[in-house]
Amino acid sequence: MLEKKIGFIGCGNMSKAIIGGLVAGGVLKPENIWVFDHKPATNQAMQQQYGITPAQSAEEVAKQADILFAAVKPNVILKVLKEVASSLNKETLVVSIAAGVTLDSLAMALGHDRKIVRVMPNTPALVNEGMTSVTPNALVTQQESEEVVAIFNSFGKAAVVDEYLIHAVVGVSGSAPAYVFMFIEAMADAAVLGGMPRAQAYQFAAQAVKGSAQMVLETGKHPGELKDMVCSPGGTTIEAVKVLEEKGFRAAVIEAMRQCMAKSEALSKKS
Ligand SMILES: NC(=O)C1=CN([C@@H]2O[C@H](COP(=O)(O)OP(=O)(O)OC[C@H]3O[C@@H](n4cnc5c(N)ncnc54)[C@H](OP(=O)(O)O)[C@@H]3O)[C@@H](O)[C@H]2O)C=CC1
Ligand SMILES: O=C(O)[C@@H]1CCC=N1
């Protein structure tokens, strides 16, 4: 169990996913998780649900934390960090989850002597299947970096990546659950069209996606080979594959992600 205090400023979708994962994984005592959201009702609800410690202010969280998560929207994070910079201890590790906010701009807000880690998680952290990239600045030690990776590994998988890869990470995992949910919803709609009850259709579609993902991860086989294994000659699947190719399925996914990555890059230039 990690004997550190972890603080969160901002408690929305992502903080809830990370805190849920930390508590479920027994990574640290819930009372060692300090939370400040500017909505008091959120702090109370988190205390009731997880037994975490609600704070009265962002400064209080900053003073308490050994590792401080800045988990507010990208447009407010620099202001929030500037306000708490003087409350941080010298050794506090600041972890930013904001999309498009670079290590350089975080250092400008916090001071250039700060240990900062930029991470990009995703919402499946809520069900212990998150995927997170971890990018430390030069002041973070190997051991501290490994600690952050271990935190995210406790509710999914995590890997250290160079900062230039962050836009690809946003495209392929940070934002990706949204397109996967759309795919599941569309498949379920089609199953409903085929007469299946709606709830059952979501179950079948989601399990098909989960099982297929598991096959990629566990067999190490090329996705194309796994696809070929499903397509019987003259069978049903190849009919579906033909239509997906005709409708530009792959091109649509690639173009959607290209624009997602471009937006991530544009946000980084603004910050
Ligand atoms: N959602 C996702 O899938 C992912 C999000 N991210 C990043 O995570 C960050 C947070 O996203 P997400 O959790 O979705 O956002 P949310 O809006 O759900 O959460 C942010 C929370 O912080 C609160 N807040 C805003 N300003 C302050 C402040 N000054 N002090 C304390 N609390 C404040 C917000 O309150 P209010 O609602 O009143 O504004 C809200 O409750 C973003 O920077 C985003 O880029 C990264 C990866 C994936
Ligand atoms: O849509 C967004 O900007 C954030 C970043 C990754 C997922 N959600």
Question: Any overview of this molecule?
Answer:
Helices cover 55% and strands 13% of the residues. By secondary structure, it is of the alpha/beta class. An 8-stranded mixed beta sheet has the order 3-2-1-4-5-6-7-8, sandwiched between helices. α6 (142-153) links the parallel β7 (130-136) and β8 (156-160). α8 (176-193) packs across α9 (198-219). The chain is elongated, with a radius of gyration of 21 Å. The protein starts with 5 loop residues before the first strand and ends with a helix. The mean pLDDT is 95. The site of NADPH dihydro-nicotinamide-adenine-dinucleotide phosphate has 27 residues, from α1 and α4. Residues 163-266 form the Pyrroline-5-carboxylate reductase dimerisation domain. This is Pyrroline-5-carboxylate reductase. Pfam families: F420_oxidored, P5CR_dimer. Keywords: Amino-acid biosynthesis, Cytoplasm, NADP, Oxidoreductase, Proline biosynthesis.
